Amino acid sequence: MRRLLPISSTIIFFLFCWFTAFSQFIVSTEKVSYQPVRTGEEMSVLKDVLSELETTFDVSIMYNSELVDGITVRKSGYVSNSIEKRLGETLNSTGLKFKKIGQKFFVITKMSKEQPKALVKNGYVPPENPAIEKLATIRTVDTQRKYALAKITGRVTDASNGESLPGVSIIIKGTATGTITDFDGNYNLDADVGQVLIFSFVGFSSEEVTVGSNPVIDVSLSPDIKALQEVVVVGYGTQQRRDITGSVTSISSKKIKDLPVTSFENAIQGQLAGVQVTETSGEPGAGPTIRVRGLGSITAGNEPLYVVDGFPISKNVDIGVQGDVFRRRAAFRPPPSNPLATLNPNDISSIEVLKDASAAAIYGSRGSNGVILITTKQGKREGKPEINFDAFVGVQSVANRVDLMNAQELGDYVRDSRNNSYLQDVPGADINDTNAERNAKAIAEGLPARAEYRIPDDFVNPTGTDTDWQDEVFSNATIQNYNISMAGGTDNVSYYVSGGYFDQNGIIDGSGFDRYSFRLNLEAEVLPKLDVGVNLNPSFTAFDRLPAGSPYFARPPGIVYSALVHSPTVSPFLPDGSINQTDNQSHLFAEDGSGAGMTTASNPLAIMNAITDDLTQNRTFGNFWAEYELADGLKFKSFVGIDINNYNRTFFRANSLLLRNATVGEPYGQSSASQSVNWLTEQTLSYIKDFNDDHHLNAVIGYTAQKESIEFNQVIAENFPDDQVVTVDGGQVTGGSAIKEEWSLVSSLARANYSFKDKYLATATIRADRSSRFGKGNRTGIFPSMSLGWRISEEAFISGVAFLSDLKLRGSWGQTGNFLIPNYASIGLLGPTNYVLGGNIQVNGIAPQTISNSDLRWEKNNQIDIGLEIGLFEDRVFAVLDWYQTTTSDLLLNVQIPSALGFTEAIQNIGEVENNGFEVSLSTRNIIGAFNWNTDINFATVNNEVTQLGPSGDPILSSGGAGNRHITRIGDAIGSYFGYVVDGIYQDQTEIDNAPTDTQAPNAAPGDFRFKDVDGDGDIDPDDRTVIGNYLPDFTWGITNTFSYKGFDLSMLIQGVEGSEVLNLTRRHLGNGEANFNSYAEWTNRWRSPSEPGNGEIPRADRQTGLHGNNNRPSSFQVEDASYIRLRNITIGYNFPTKMLKNTFKNLRVYASGTNLFTSTDYLGYNPEVNNQSAASPNVQGEDYGAYPLNRVFSFGVNATF
Asked: How far apart are the first and last CA of the chain?
């Protein structure tokens, strides 16, 4: 049963608190002119006050450093929400004044009209105008020069309104000689005829003017839209956020840089509407699962496309043989390594997510699952180099523990289960019968003398052992990260260089992850119209892996599950100190000791000591580009990239490990290696032009080609004589494999963005992809899209609404495709087959393994999106609302075919699935002043439904970790859970007699589950199995609050999921009622009698439930509500004031952070996001068979800028 009400009420509580505070903000906004806030008065350094105002109001304040040195001011006793009023109050009685330039820039000068020596922006040099910093060291004109110079004078104004611009830098090109304009925009400078003057100013486009015979040069600078408006990367270019007509969401590096995570995906969890990040495993190096607007495919991949600095890469390593490097010959596959873990999060500048087809169609066949664009940091031209050092160290612990029985509770459980079985099976049985009497009575009735009937008078636990196996397996572990970077440049060159080291030890001893990374991003203007750039990112990662996330009976067995099922009556070690592997279920022993020595589940400590699984990755990722300006606004760009990956894995299972029911070890080893080379070339032509101030065009056309080649080699060895040599040459080589694969993609693309009067917006995109993965007749796919936008706030009829700062309506339609299928799905593949020839002679041969399908074509994704963007009170409140509907057709499915063809199934394009939902993003600046409070809220729903399945519409049953427990059928979500519905517990025999006949449990007794007769035919049979849950959530949400006061800052992220359910397969053993393993503590509330019914949800204990009520069959009892609320992160920091740093640091901040601090959920397991089959088909999602738990992290860090 879903825990909707408790979760929803908690959300309502948070929203109530937020809206209460926000309503106070609205009131304060309305009354701010009349009710200023008293804060007290104190003396402060003017520079510090100006820096605080910049941060508070998100503006830039420029001034002459010498002008403000040594000045202290009395902080105003009243706080206004207006930057103009605050700045005026601050400068009162200082002899200084200010002028506002545009919306975000302020210049401070003396009251007189004397020309300031150098205007510099306080503490920051925007990359759009690096000349500002250079002016701080500019030298005056040499009056002793021996040749004649012309005296140039003039005035610089704002082209948009004609107002003068103070502080504009004028530099003679190629020299360090120059000056700046005074308060009225006037300047004078000596220069030679023919020299070029460069006029530049923050927020405006630079101008170059050649000195001629006229000594007066007046210049008008136009606002630089790129500098004044937020620019978003949209694929093959950038666009102003306010002009975007598709659904694009983004997050900056500021919101992820301090989180102690391996990869950036972990850091964005809960912060983006419509982007569900699921952290299924806490294993070091394992990546989370990301879904953008639900599941769109049944057979193909569902991961979004990742584009790093323009290079598309796929995270879904299962598509090629790389996915098998570390998983071949594994009964239960561990989570795949995360290829994005090689990317240092500290190098990331911004992340954009293209969610709808209009935005993602530019990537065609790879855009159906959304596109995540990652842009890394760049240098800055001119100015002093800036060095940043970032580091944190932390301690990890298991975030949540499972509530299990202790030794005494387990003993009671064993007795209860055996008594119930004995009393039901054997006529005349008495609960007080001795074991001898139990044997005799059973034999007299023609029954075997079952061990399940015997029970010791005194529970066998002579030493009083009560082992907590979770304490034995989990321990505290360290995590640390160190990064140093330098950004700088000259007039024509910018560079960003960084090096990083990340180290995470696992909370299960022996697991861990290390990363060494380096980055060089270089841009240069080699000719007046030619820019070139290089991005280079070599890295090395090392995974120390353990088989944590698999059942106790897997080979190798899972550590976590083995710890859960292990009896607390068992000591981890023998008296001699060696690991105990002989009596792991002593709670089942009879008085005479029968049953002792059975190794049903391996000691988890033995697994940890006996398994070595090391995976290393060397990666070289980079690109080179050159861009030439052919004409005004017309640029040609050539881009070449390469991604080289080398994986090496060594695996060894030692002799010392006893597997299930084994008395001797089964040593096994393998060595495997894989190399992939992925290259890309792109040629694009872009055109950006304004016409008559009313028309703006931003267009791009291009051609791309990409190819990846993969090689995989593996050697397997067994029969190791001992554990001294753990490489394959220490055993007998018994197998191996070698595979080569490749794929290629050739594409053409075009996109045009048009705006009229900044009110009416339109975007049209088309891409054609030709892929090697599809049939010859359908290798080319065409993917168009279009979108329209209307900025209503620019219309005259609404311009009088004072509180409305922005209002935009947009709508889009588009088609994308799904590229994530096996490389040779359309081809009939051959494989090795042995056959007998001439008697008993076995011959090796080759035979067809799959049937070809030359008509195999793309899965196509059609999406409609309608969005509304609303800004209120100068965008202090900003909301984005989206409704979408996505229909994916031509789904790839394995369908049944006539056996006369030699095969039983073939992959074909038959099927359709629909996703629809609603998304809300809300950002508010609640309080502005000495104390600041900002809130970001995101909320998203998703509804997934299969609408077509093959010509017959037959459902697809899928097997994950334990038989066919998943179904994909028309009218339900992909991979829904499938089983019987528990309809209560029988209280007496009369209820059983009056109930439908249970053909799966003919000997049910009071205390057993009552199952629902779904089809109403009077029988409980396999036809009564139905959908009993689904892993997909109803909605996801996140709330981030950030606070700052003086130098202190605090951020808090709470995120949650509602409506998700987990198929908890651990209940097959931890909740089966048979007491043959340890169990969840909830079984202490089991049914014992009609007068002791327990909690009404847990049935009776029964050692022979399979012969009686069959309570352990696949049913809704194993499906649990996985809704949760999680306190994801709290970070508190302190920024040291400028006066304390002197000349050592430019900025210095220290902080403390806590991650995964608290999770509220009804789920019994470690993690409500668990998904053991995350790397497998979407048809078998949401299983828990004992996964690596999440970790709780407390860390301390420092950010320093030099």
From this structure: 56
